[in-house]
Amino acid sequence: MRCLHEASLYDRNAFITLTYDDANLPPGGSLSYPDFHTAMNLVRQAQEEFVRVPADVRARFSNDPQKFMNFFEDPANRDEAKRLGLLRDPVPEPAPMRVQVVPDTNSQSS
After folding, report:
1. 58 vs 7, 76, 78, 86, 89, CA distance in Å?
2. Taking every pair of C-alpha atoms in the chain, what is the biggest distance, in angstroms?
3. By the 8 A CB rule, do 7 and 13 touch?
4. 31 CB burial (10 A radius; 0-12, 13-18, 19+)
5. In the chain, pLDDT over 90 holds for what percent of residues?
6. 36 touches 18 (CB < 8 A)
7. For the whole model, what pTM was predicted?
8. For 5-20, what is each residue's pLDDT tens digit?
9. Contacts of 43 (CB under 8 A, 6+ apart)
10. What is the dihedral of CA 41, 47, 50, 52, to 10 degrees?
11. What's the CA gap between 54 and 89, in Å, rounded?
12. Residues 51-79: pLDDT tens digits?
């Protein structure tokens, strides 16, 4: 009931359900506080990073971080991501250099 009341107070809201697959159920089969805390920190971090994206780019995705992430999951969007300034071509690794150590012929031995 409280969730519905809270949702009615805001134009934009979402419910987050944290679930485990059977192979990763925690002891007792319930969400532990550290797992919840970690998940909420990840959500907060993702929100903060999305806010740093320029407003015109966020608008392209209706200010929806999920639409933004879905866009990047489709390889067909690589060219548009580059045009939006969100993706750069990888910097090629420099070719290995050959290093040769030569004795110092100017040094004097005692």
Report:
1. 23, 19, 17, 11, 22
2. 91
3. yes
4. middle
5. 14
6. yes
7. 0.48
8. 777 777 777 766 767 7
9. 16
10. -80
11. 20
12. 888 899 999 999 888 898 889 889 999 99
Residues in the chain: 110
Torsion of CA 58, 60, 61, 63, to 10 degrees: 40
Q: What angle do CA 26, 28, 34 make, to 5 degrees?
A: 50
DSSP conformational letter for 97? P
Tokens for 22, please give them: 């059977």
The full set of domain ranges for the chain reads 2-83
For 5-61, give the secondary structure using H, E and C.
HHHHCCCCCCCCCCCCCHHHCCHHHCCCHHHHHHHHHHHHHHHHHHHCCCHHHHHHC
